[in-house]
Amino acid sequence: MIGVLLDENFPAPAARRLREAGHDVAEGVVECRGWPDERVLARAVTEGRWLVTFDRDYGDLVFKRRLPAPPAIILIRERHYRPAEPADWLLPLLDASEQHVGRFLVVTRDKMRWRALLQSV
Question: Mind listing the pLDDT tens digit for each residue in 46-64?
Fold first, then answer.
């Protein structure tokens, strides 16, 4: 089971599917609404959660500003999707979690690319 922190723009139906699959899900829309990205990132680091977001700013925080990184960051780069669909893209990644620790993953419905995080917990 992977602990994930979903940024506040993550759709509730997809969050529910992740939780139903057995993952420890913290929803930003409920627990971190209005927090600056730095604070959300720090929470993911402190709790050892993977951060899942649609916000590219987290790449700047960990690569340019060199803030501490959580075990993994998943950036979803899709503009149009059904509300539960992001779970379809995430579940295979979470199921193969060992190979993705220490990575910044960029995910679309058709592909995934990644870059090693400079620092991770």
Answer: 999 999 999 999 999 999 9
Nearest alpha carbon to residue 24 among 39, 8, 44: 44
- Domain coordinates of the chain in residue numbers? 3-116
Q: State CA 48 to chain mean position distance.
A: 12
> In which residue are the tokens 């979903």 written?
6
Whole-structure pTM value: 0.93
Cα 55 from Cα 121, distance rounded (Å): 21
Q: In the chain, count of helices (H) and strands (E)?
A: 5, 6
Could you tell me which of 57, 46, 51 has the C-alpha nearest to residue 94?
51
Distance separating the N- and C-terminal Cα atoms of the chain: 17
Contact 121, 45 (CB under 8 A): yes
Position 74 confidence tier, pLDDT thresholds 50, 70, 90: very high
Give the tens place of pLDDT for each residue, 103-113. Answer: 999 999 999 99
- Count other Cβ atoms within 10 Å, centred on residue 59: 15
What amino acid occupies position 107?
A: V
